[in-house]
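F.,

This is the one I mentioned.
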């Protein structure tokens, strides 16, 4: 009986299920619709995957806030510094150090320098045999050239002697008549030569010492002249004047100067201002007493240039050779001669 009842219930349930499926008016199954709505709602409301969002937001935040790589920062700082700060003096300091070190430690190779100078001189200098020969003809045998001697102005011929003017600095009113060289030089600077060859003494009336007959305490070229009253029988000295034998330019004679001559320049072996050559074109006395020379540019006296002269005297003229100079070159000189008027 129970078995029949269970079968009947099952049959009813199956029938209802068949009827539900077959009934066109029955509402559709809302299971799928609910599932679809759930999905749409979830798509509209659910938050995105926090893992990816966190990763993306982290990247954006890092890009906006994180400090740049130190290498790039250093490069940027260098560029900014190069644009604004003063130039780097490292190279300049290094160069300065090298120069100081070289100047302090490096010594020039004097041998190579000397050889180089000789080669340059040999390449540029032409031997003027005519000038050399002419000079040798002027030189007496055994006479050495004037090389290495700097001229003193005005230059004169030492073997020509003359007398200075007369000097009378004292009178015999005191202890006697004192015409001493130290006092005369002090009162007459440049008028008496350093080493007079002779002395001459006369009275103001023109009597010589021997004619005056007085006893003379001193009369020489070192001290000068002294007459003492105490040495005289009448205790009186006559009034004397003195003069000295010197070379030019201490003579009392008048001297006339020629014009300036510049016949040569130092482009060859040197500057050759020889008297014999100058006399061919100009009127110059046969025996000049003086010679004076200076540069043509700045008018520097020859004695102030520091150069050496192969010849420098009034009877031959001036010769400056390039090879005798420290820097291998003479300056350009002009000369003039002093003759007796």
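My design for it:
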């Amino acid at each position: 009986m129970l078995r029949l009842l269970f079968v009947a219930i099952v049959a009813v349930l199956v029938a209802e299920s068949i009827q539900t499926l077959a009934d066109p008016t029955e509402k559709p199954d809302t299971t799928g619709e609910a599932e679809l709505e759930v999905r749409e709602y979830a798509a509209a409301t659910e938050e995105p995957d926090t893992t990816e969002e966190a990763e993306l937001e982290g990247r954006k935040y890092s890009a906006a806030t994180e400090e740049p790589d130190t290498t790039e920062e250093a490069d940027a700082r260098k560029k900014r510094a190069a644009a604004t700060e003063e130039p780097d003096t490292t190279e300049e300091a290094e160069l300065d150090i090298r120069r100081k070190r070289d100047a302090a430690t490096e010594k020039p190779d004097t041998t190579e320098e000397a050889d180089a100078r000789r080669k340059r001189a040999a390449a540029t200098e032409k031997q003027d045999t005519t000038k050399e020969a002419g000079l040798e003809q002027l030189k007496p045998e055994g006479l050495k050239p004037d090389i290495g001697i700097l001229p003193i102005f005005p230059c004169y011929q030492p073997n020509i002697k003359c007398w200075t003017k007369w000097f009378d600095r004292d009178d015999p009113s005191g202890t006697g008549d004192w015409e001493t060289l130290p006092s005369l030089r002090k009162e007459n600077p440049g008028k008496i030569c350093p080493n007079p060859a002779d002395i001459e003494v006369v009275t103001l009336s023109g009597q010589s010492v021997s004619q005056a007959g007085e006893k003379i305490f001193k009369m020489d070229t070192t001290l000068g002249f002294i007459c003492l009253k105490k040495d005289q029988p009448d205790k009186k000295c006559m009034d004397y004047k003195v003069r000295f034998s010197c070379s030019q330019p201490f003579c009392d004679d008048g001297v006339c100067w020629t014009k300036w001559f510049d016949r040569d320049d130092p482009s060859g072996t040197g500057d050759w201002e020889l008297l014999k050559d100058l006399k061919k074109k100009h009127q110059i006395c046969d025996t000049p007493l003086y010679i004076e020379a200076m540069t043509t540019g700045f008018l520097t006296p020859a004695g102030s240039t520091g150069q050496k002269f192969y010849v420098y005297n009034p009877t031959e003229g001036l010769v400056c050779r390039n090879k005798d100079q420290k820097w291998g070159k003479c300056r350009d000189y002009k000369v003039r001669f002093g003759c007796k008027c």
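Residues 24-31, 85-89, 124-144 have pLDDT under 50 and may be disordered.

Talk soon.
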